[in-house]
Amino acid sequence: MRIAVAGGTGVVGSRVVEAVEARGDQAVVLSRGTGVDVITGSGLDAALEGVDAVVDTTNIDTLSASAATSFFERATGNLAAASARAGVGHLVVLSIVGIDRMPYDYYAGKVAQERAAEASSVPWTILRATQFHEFAAQMFARGRIGPLHVAPRARVQPVAAREVGRHLATLAAGAPQGRAADLAGPREERLDEMVKAYATRVGYRGWIPSVSLPGRQLKAMRDGLALPGPGATLGAQTFAQWLGAVDHP
Q1: Three-state DSSP class for 28?
Q2: Which residue among 79, 126, 155, 157 is buried most deeply as judged by most CB within 10 Å?
Q3: At a CB cut-off of 8 Å and minimum separation 6, what does 237 contact?
Q4: 53-56 vs 151-152, strand pairing mode
Q5: Which CATH number is associated with domain 2-244?
Q6: Contact, 43 vs 37, CB < 8 A?
Q7: How far apart are CA 204 and CA 248, in angstroms?
Q8: Closest by Cα among 2, 149, 146, 165 to 87
Q9: The whole model's pTM is what?
Q10: Are 246 and 198 in contact (CB under 8 A)?
Q11: Can you give the residue ranges of every domain in the chain?
Q12: What is the pLDDT of residue 143?
Protein backbone atom coordinates (compact mmCIF):
# COMPACT_ATOMS: atom_id res chain seq x y z
CA MET A 1 0.00 0.00 0.00
CA ARG A 2 0.92 3.62 -0.43
CA ILE A 3 0.01 5.61 2.70
CA ALA A 4 0.42 9.37 3.00
CA VAL A 5 1.02 10.89 6.43
CA ALA A 6 0.16 14.54 6.98
CA GLY A 7 2.34 15.92 9.75
CA GLY A 8 4.71 13.04 9.09
CA THR A 9 7.66 14.71 10.81
CA GLY A 10 5.85 15.35 14.12
CA VAL A 11 5.78 13.43 17.41
CA VAL A 12 3.13 10.96 16.24
CA GLY A 13 3.40 11.40 12.48
CA SER A 14 7.02 10.25 12.44
CA ARG A 15 5.95 7.12 14.35
CA VAL A 16 3.24 6.47 11.79
CA VAL A 17 5.83 6.67 9.02
CA GLU A 18 8.06 4.20 10.89
CA ALA A 19 5.15 1.80 11.42
CA VAL A 20 3.97 2.01 7.81
CA GLU A 21 7.44 1.19 6.53
CA ALA A 22 7.86 -1.59 9.11
CA ARG A 23 4.71 -3.20 7.67
CA GLY A 24 6.33 -3.18 4.23
CA ASP A 25 4.12 -0.41 2.88
CA GLN A 26 5.27 2.86 1.31
CA ALA A 27 4.98 6.05 3.38
CA VAL A 28 4.57 9.45 1.73
CA VAL A 29 5.36 12.31 4.11
CA LEU A 30 3.19 15.39 3.63
CA SER A 31 4.97 18.38 5.13
CA ARG A 32 6.37 21.73 4.08
CA GLY A 33 9.77 20.04 3.96
CA THR A 34 8.52 17.74 1.20
CA GLY A 35 6.84 20.56 -0.71
CA VAL A 36 3.31 20.14 0.65
CA ASP A 37 1.34 22.78 2.56
CA VAL A 38 -1.95 21.48 3.91
CA ILE A 39 -3.14 24.98 4.84
CA THR A 40 -2.85 26.40 1.32
CA GLY A 41 -3.25 23.04 -0.41
CA SER A 42 -0.04 23.58 -2.36
CA GLY A 43 1.52 20.32 -3.55
CA LEU A 44 -1.30 18.13 -2.21
CA ASP A 45 -2.71 16.89 -5.51
CA ALA A 46 0.67 15.75 -6.83
CA ALA A 47 1.63 14.13 -3.52
CA LEU A 48 -1.57 12.07 -3.32
CA GLU A 49 -1.30 10.49 -6.76
CA GLY A 50 -1.51 6.73 -6.36
CA VAL A 51 -2.08 6.97 -2.59
CA ASP A 52 -4.40 4.38 -1.02
CA ALA A 53 -4.89 5.98 2.40
CA VAL A 54 -4.13 9.27 4.17
CA VAL A 55 -3.35 9.61 7.88
CA ASP A 56 -3.91 13.10 9.31
CA THR A 57 -1.68 13.86 12.31
CA THR A 58 -1.45 17.60 11.65
CA ASN A 59 -1.14 19.84 14.68
CA ILE A 60 -0.91 23.46 15.75
CA ASP A 61 0.67 24.81 18.94
CA THR A 62 -2.03 27.11 20.29
CA LEU A 63 -4.46 27.41 23.19
CA SER A 64 -6.81 29.61 21.15
CA ALA A 65 -10.11 28.00 20.13
CA SER A 66 -10.48 30.25 17.10
CA ALA A 67 -6.91 29.65 15.88
CA ALA A 68 -7.21 25.89 16.36
CA THR A 69 -10.60 25.75 14.64
CA SER A 70 -9.38 27.75 11.66
CA PHE A 71 -6.27 25.58 11.31
CA PHE A 72 -8.02 22.21 11.45
CA GLU A 73 -10.93 23.23 9.24
CA ARG A 74 -8.47 24.28 6.54
CA ALA A 75 -5.88 21.52 6.99
CA THR A 76 -8.25 18.56 7.24
CA GLY A 77 -10.68 20.13 4.78
CA ASN A 78 -7.91 20.46 2.19
CA LEU A 79 -6.68 16.93 2.86
CA ALA A 80 -10.19 15.53 2.47
CA ALA A 81 -10.86 17.45 -0.75
CA ALA A 82 -7.53 16.49 -2.30
CA SER A 83 -8.04 12.87 -1.23
CA ALA A 84 -11.41 12.82 -2.98
CA ARG A 85 -9.89 14.23 -6.16
CA ALA A 86 -7.12 11.64 -6.07
CA GLY A 87 -9.45 8.72 -5.47
CA VAL A 88 -7.97 7.92 -2.04
CA GLY A 89 -10.01 5.17 -0.40
CA HIS A 90 -9.46 5.91 3.30
CA LEU A 91 -8.89 9.02 5.43
CA VAL A 92 -7.68 8.37 8.99
CA VAL A 93 -7.73 11.26 11.48
CA LEU A 94 -6.03 11.36 14.87
CA SER A 95 -8.19 13.07 17.49
CA ILE A 96 -8.31 13.26 21.31
CA VAL A 97 -10.38 11.40 23.88
CA GLY A 98 -13.08 13.52 25.49
CA ILE A 99 -13.18 16.49 23.14
CA ASP A 100 -16.97 16.30 22.89
CA ARG A 101 -17.16 16.51 26.69
CA MET A 102 -14.87 19.56 26.86
CA PRO A 103 -14.94 21.41 23.50
CA TYR A 104 -12.88 24.35 24.73
CA ASP A 105 -9.67 26.06 23.69
CA TYR A 106 -7.51 23.77 21.51
CA TYR A 107 -10.09 20.98 21.76
CA ALA A 108 -12.65 23.14 19.93
CA GLY A 109 -10.35 22.84 16.92
CA LYS A 110 -10.25 19.06 17.22
CA VAL A 111 -14.06 18.97 17.21
CA ALA A 112 -13.97 21.01 14.00
CA GLN A 113 -11.39 18.63 12.56
CA GLU A 114 -13.61 15.61 13.19
CA ARG A 115 -16.53 17.37 11.52
CA ALA A 116 -14.39 18.13 8.47
CA ALA A 117 -13.51 14.44 8.15
CA GLU A 118 -17.09 13.33 8.66
CA ALA A 119 -18.29 15.73 5.96
CA SER A 120 -15.83 14.30 3.43
CA SER A 121 -16.89 12.03 0.59
CA VAL A 122 -13.84 9.88 1.38
CA PRO A 123 -14.53 6.89 3.70
CA TRP A 124 -13.01 7.78 7.07
CA THR A 125 -11.81 6.52 10.43
CA ILE A 126 -11.36 8.76 13.48
CA LEU A 127 -9.11 7.53 16.27
CA ARG A 128 -9.34 9.38 19.56
CA ALA A 129 -6.27 8.87 21.75
CA THR A 130 -5.41 10.19 25.18
CA GLN A 131 -2.49 12.54 25.82
CA PHE A 132 0.97 11.21 25.01
CA HIS A 133 3.69 10.69 27.60
CA GLU A 134 5.41 13.72 26.01
CA PHE A 135 2.56 15.83 27.43
CA ALA A 136 4.53 16.07 30.69
CA ALA A 137 7.44 17.74 28.91
CA GLN A 138 5.09 20.16 27.15
CA MET A 139 3.39 21.12 30.42
CA PHE A 140 6.77 21.58 32.12
CA ALA A 141 7.83 24.02 29.39
CA ARG A 142 4.48 25.86 29.34
CA GLY A 143 4.27 25.99 33.12
CA ARG A 144 7.11 28.46 33.55
CA ILE A 145 6.08 31.68 35.29
CA GLY A 146 9.15 33.90 35.61
CA PRO A 147 11.81 31.86 37.45
CA LEU A 148 9.19 29.38 38.71
CA HIS A 149 7.68 26.29 37.14
CA VAL A 150 4.22 25.06 38.14
CA ALA A 151 2.63 21.66 37.65
CA PRO A 152 -1.06 21.71 36.65
CA ARG A 153 -3.41 19.27 38.32
CA ALA A 154 -5.34 16.99 35.97
CA ARG A 155 -6.36 13.36 35.60
CA VAL A 156 -4.83 11.74 32.51
CA GLN A 157 -4.15 8.27 31.13
CA PRO A 158 -1.16 8.87 28.86
CA VAL A 159 -0.24 6.60 25.98
CA ALA A 160 3.03 6.06 24.12
CA ALA A 161 3.27 8.03 20.88
CA ARG A 162 4.94 5.04 19.25
CA GLU A 163 1.94 2.86 20.09
CA VAL A 164 -0.40 5.48 18.66
CA GLY A 165 1.67 5.53 15.48
CA ARG A 166 1.48 1.76 15.10
CA HIS A 167 -2.26 1.80 15.73
CA LEU A 168 -2.83 4.50 13.10
CA ALA A 169 -0.76 2.58 10.55
CA THR A 170 -2.82 -0.54 11.19
CA LEU A 171 -6.08 1.37 10.84
CA ALA A 172 -4.93 2.98 7.59
CA ALA A 173 -4.17 -0.43 6.09
CA GLY A 174 -7.63 -1.72 6.97
CA ALA A 175 -11.19 -0.86 6.05
CA PRO A 176 -12.73 2.47 7.17
CA GLN A 177 -14.41 2.17 10.58
CA GLY A 178 -15.98 5.55 11.27
CA ARG A 179 -15.29 6.09 14.96
CA ALA A 180 -12.70 3.53 16.06
CA ALA A 181 -12.38 2.43 19.68
CA ASP A 182 -10.51 4.99 21.79
CA LEU A 183 -6.82 4.37 22.50
CA ALA A 184 -5.35 5.09 25.95
CA GLY A 185 -2.39 4.23 28.11
CA PRO A 186 -2.38 1.34 30.60
CA ARG A 187 -3.06 3.36 33.75
CA GLU A 188 -4.35 6.68 35.05
CA GLU A 189 -1.75 9.23 36.18
CA ARG A 190 -1.74 12.62 37.90
CA LEU A 191 -0.45 15.24 35.50
CA ASP A 192 1.26 17.30 38.22
CA GLU A 193 3.20 14.24 39.37
CA MET A 194 4.18 13.50 35.77
CA VAL A 195 5.50 17.04 35.31
CA LYS A 196 7.53 16.87 38.52
CA ALA A 197 8.97 13.46 37.61
CA TYR A 198 9.93 14.73 34.17
CA ALA A 199 11.59 17.83 35.66
CA THR A 200 13.65 15.68 38.01
CA ARG A 201 14.63 13.39 35.17
CA VAL A 202 16.01 16.26 33.07
CA GLY A 203 17.92 17.77 35.98
CA TYR A 204 15.65 20.55 37.23
CA ARG A 205 16.06 20.99 40.97
CA GLY A 206 13.72 23.89 41.70
CA TRP A 207 10.46 23.76 43.63
CA ILE A 208 7.44 22.97 41.44
CA PRO A 209 4.11 23.56 43.18
CA SER A 210 0.99 21.70 42.09
CA VAL A 211 -1.70 24.16 41.03
CA SER A 212 -5.27 24.07 39.76
CA LEU A 213 -4.98 26.35 36.76
CA PRO A 214 -7.99 28.34 35.57
CA GLY A 215 -9.85 27.53 32.38
CA ARG A 216 -12.71 25.24 31.46
CA GLN A 217 -10.53 22.68 29.70
CA LEU A 218 -8.20 22.08 32.63
CA LYS A 219 -11.12 22.00 35.08
CA ALA A 220 -12.73 19.35 32.89
CA MET A 221 -9.49 17.37 32.92
CA ARG A 222 -9.35 17.60 36.72
CA ASP A 223 -12.88 16.18 36.72
CA GLY A 224 -11.70 13.19 34.69
CA LEU A 225 -13.38 14.06 31.40
CA ALA A 226 -10.20 13.32 29.42
CA LEU A 227 -10.11 9.72 30.63
CA PRO A 228 -11.18 6.85 28.37
CA GLY A 229 -14.45 5.08 28.89
CA PRO A 230 -15.28 1.37 28.78
CA GLY A 231 -14.24 -0.39 25.59
CA ALA A 232 -11.06 1.61 25.01
CA THR A 233 -7.99 -0.14 23.64
CA LEU A 234 -5.13 0.13 26.14
CA GLY A 235 -1.46 0.47 25.29
CA ALA A 236 1.38 -1.26 27.12
CA GLN A 237 4.05 1.33 27.96
CA THR A 238 3.59 3.17 31.25
CA PHE A 239 4.68 6.75 31.83
CA ALA A 240 7.43 5.53 34.18
CA GLN A 241 8.80 3.24 31.47
CA TRP A 242 8.77 6.08 28.94
CA LEU A 243 10.44 8.42 31.42
CA GLY A 244 13.23 5.93 32.02
CA ALA A 245 14.26 6.28 28.39
CA VAL A 246 14.32 10.11 28.42
CA ASP A 247 17.83 11.57 28.13
CA HIS A 248 19.06 13.27 31.30
CA PRO A 249 22.22 15.10 32.33
Answers
A1: strand
A2: 79
A3: 133, 159, 160, 162, 163, 185, 186
A4: unpaired
A5: 3.40.50.720
A6: yes
A7: 10
A8: 2
A9: 0.94
A10: yes
A11: 2-244
A12: 86
